[in-house]
Amino acid sequence: MALEEYKRKRRFEETPEPPPKVEKKKGNRFVVQKHEATRLHYDFRLEMEGVLKSWAVPKGPSLDPADKRLAMQVEDHPVSYFDFEGNIPEGNYGAGSVMVWDVGTWQPLSPVPVDGKYVPGTEAEAASMLAKGDLKFRLNGKRLKGDFALIKMKGRRPGSKGNEWLMIKKHDDHVVEGYDAGDIDESVLSKRSMDDIAGDARSREWKSDRPAARGKLKAAWLADAIARVEKKKAAQGPRGTQKKKASSKKKA
Ligand code: MN
Questions:
Q1: How many whole angstroms from 156 Cα to the centroid of ligand 1?
Q2: Total number of domains in the chain
Q3: Can you give the pLDDT at residue 19?
Q4: 18 alpha carbon to ligand 1 midpoint, in Å?
Q5: Residue 243 above 60 pLDDT?
Q6: 191-200 per-position pLDDT tens digit
Q7: What is the pLDDT of residues 163-188, one digit of tens each?
Q8: Which of 46, 132, 204, 219 has its CA 20 to 30 A from that of 25?
Q9: Cα(215) to centroid(ligand 1), Å
Q10: Ligand 1 ion: nearby residues, β-carbon < 5 Å
């Protein structure tokens, strides 16, 4: 059953992420979520076969064909993950802030070009290309547009899990040389920055030395997290000597 791994990794009574559910309706959306977990990365997800097929792209997708971006295939996500933006609590899988960085629709491209140009393909071709590890597709997002390929790397490197793909922009009218997804720190849904999104969670952690705040905490995980932070702060000496950023890094 699809989404089993998604389910296994999460405790739904603790995380605001949506529960696993395979969608019966067909759809052709895509989403890119900027995710500040243990390591910052961008999750690229294609709606396909009732789920979101997902890849974690450490440097983010690029519109420059010269960039071959490493994309680690990760577990399928439920379609309702499409617009998930918020904070995954500390101690949970993927803990950290999630921003909806891009949304749009996609279509598979036929593996056989016509007159040297890629043309829309069928759903069956998409399934076959995915299985073969050479998926060509066209994106129509707010930020990402044009033709791309996701190509599975053959020949496993030592220590590799065999889930490594490359995401590559094809040459077309949408190429932007030197593109860097990191230049745009704004949600396409809420216009918030990563700091804005993290804000609530961070301020709860960092203003927690006010006793009144602690009484309002409903979730046990948060109380525990704050207790750990306070213990660390006490051990490290006077307040204000640590960097906010470093302490906000979460365990995955
Ligand atoms: Mn992620």
A1: 22
A2: 1
A3: 92
A4: 14
A5: no
A6: 999 999 998 6
A7: 999 999 999 999 999 999 999 999 99
A8: 132
A9: 32
A10: 35, 43
Structure token pair of residue 183: 């230049």
What number is the average pLDDT over the span 35-52? 96
- Please state, in angstroms and as integers, the Cα–Cα distance from residue 165 to each residue in 149, 179, 188, 210, 222, following that order: 10, 19, 26, 47, 36
Q: pLDDT value at position 2?
A: 83
| Residue 78: C-alpha distances to residues 30, 50, 163, 182 (Å) | 12, 8, 19, 26
- Between the CA of 61 and the centroid of ligand 1 the distance, in Å, is 14
| Cα distances (Å, whole numbers) of residue 116 to 110, 112, 123, 132, 168 | 12, 9, 21, 22, 18
CA of 115 to the centre of ligand 1 (A): 38
Q: Which domain holds residue 42?
A: 4-251
Amino acid in the structure at residue 84: F
| Residues 96 and 114: beta-carbon distance below 8 Å | no
Q: Does the pLDDT at position 218 exceed 90?
A: no
Residues counted in the chain? 252
Instruction: Tell me, in angstroms, the distance from the centre of ligand 1 to residue 8's CA.
Output: 16
Q: 46 C-alpha vs ligand 1 centroid, how far in Å?
A: 14
CA of 132 to the centre of ligand 1 (A): 24
In angstroms, what is the span from residue 137 Cα to ligand 1's centroid? Answer: 22
Please give the pLDDT value at position 162: 86
